[in-house]
Design brief:
By secondary structure, the protein is an alpha/beta fold. Helix content is 45%, strand content 9%. α2 packs across α3 and α6 crosses α8. One of its GO terms (molecular function) is phosphatidylinositol bisphosphate binding.
């Protein structure tokens, strides 16, 4: 995809939402992408992919930055710094890798089909499917985080998700003190904290379900690594009934619906796992992830960065009546 052949194909209401919430305009979208691309290509201290395949990714960055060139440039720097600080979880992810798929097949992280009533993607994380201490012992922290990042970030090639964002359901059923103790691992906490500056996407809300008496301790752990604005988006559900007011039943797996419910659903957990494996191993998804995270397409040397650099905000014409 190049800047010349990009077309906005979503419904008009999402174009309006992109304009109202993200400052995106049809009239100068391509100019904004070109300005960001030119800035990247002019830098001596960093390299970030800008070829024709990456137009949708540059647009994702601009949407995340609400079309501020200043924030977009800082976001790129944040991503590259994160990449070289944690190369083993950032670079060369292959969604068809044997270990990657083993982790995916546990169903610990499942995108639910379709979108909620606000056009957002919903991601279900199930603690009991792959307890954290088991993940560390069997796969190691790098493989575990690569799997999560590959699943999560591959969702953002979708423009609906770029514009409307992601909602996370965190089913903490079976969370143990042992798992929480392992979550205090210094490397894991460092990755979690730093990754918030390197995830280019709108995280709209976090729905914790069935966390029980460990919530206070767990939330204390979360607050140590989560930004304040993300903490403010946390909602806790003591039962499924309260979650139904936030997540449409039609999107939920059968296992999360009452026995007397007869309406549409997403199907069984195993069905959703099969769909996710099929998505991850598709040529489209695999190519997207591989192209995004090729190590040779990134470079960062802070010693080459100019001491003073003038950042010019992308100019937009004012519509004056």
């Amino acid at each position: 995809m190049s800047t010349e052949d990009y077309k906005f194909t979503l419904e008009a209401k999402y174009l309006k939402k992109a304009k109202d919430e993200l400052n995106e305009n049809d009239s100068d979208r391509m100019d904004a992408i070109e300005a960001l691309k030119n800035w990247i290509n002019e830098q001596k201290h960093l390299k970030y992919p800008t070829g024709k395949y990456y137009t949708i990714n540059l647009l994702r960055i601009l949407r995340y930055a609400k079309f501020s060139q200043i924030k977009a440039r800082q976001t790129i720097e944040n991503v590259i710094q994160f990449a070289f600080k944690y190369p083993d979880i950032f670079f060369n992810i292959d969604t068809t890798d044997e270990t990657f798929l083993k982790i995916a097949k546990t169903g610990h992280c499942i995108p639910l089909p379709g979108y909620d009533d606000e056009g957002r993607k919903v991601l279900l994380f199930r603690s009991s499917a792959l307890p954290f201490e088991h993940a560390l012992k069997e796969y190691g922290i790098d493989a575990y985080m690569r799997s999560f990042r590959g699943c999560f970030l591959s969702l953002f090639q979708d423009e609906m998700t770029q514009i409307n964002g992601v909602v996370l359901i965190l089913d903490m059923t079976g969370l143990s003190l042992r798992s929480m103790t392992k979550m205090n691992d210094p490397k894991f906490k460092s990755i979690e904290k730093d990754s918030q500056e390197a995830i280019i996407g709108r995280l709209k809300s976090f729905h914790f379900y069935n966390i029980g008496g460990l919530f206070e301790a767990f939330f204390t752990l979360c607050k140590a690594v989560m930004k304040k604005k993300l903490i403010e988006r946390v909602k806790v559900h003591v039962n499924l009934e309260t979650m139904y007011s936030s997540i449409p039943k039609r999107m939920l797996p059968d296992e999360y619906l009452s026995d007397d419910y007869t309406g549409p659903s997403a199907g069984s957990i195993q069905h959703l796992i099969d769909l996710e494996v099929k998505r991850l191993t598709s040529e489209k998804c695999r190519n997207y992830v591989q192209q995004q995270f090729k190590r040779e397409r990134y470079f960062y040397d802070p010693n080459l960065k100019p001491r003073e650099s003038t950042v010019v905000q992308h100019f937009r014409k004012l519509n004056v009546d």
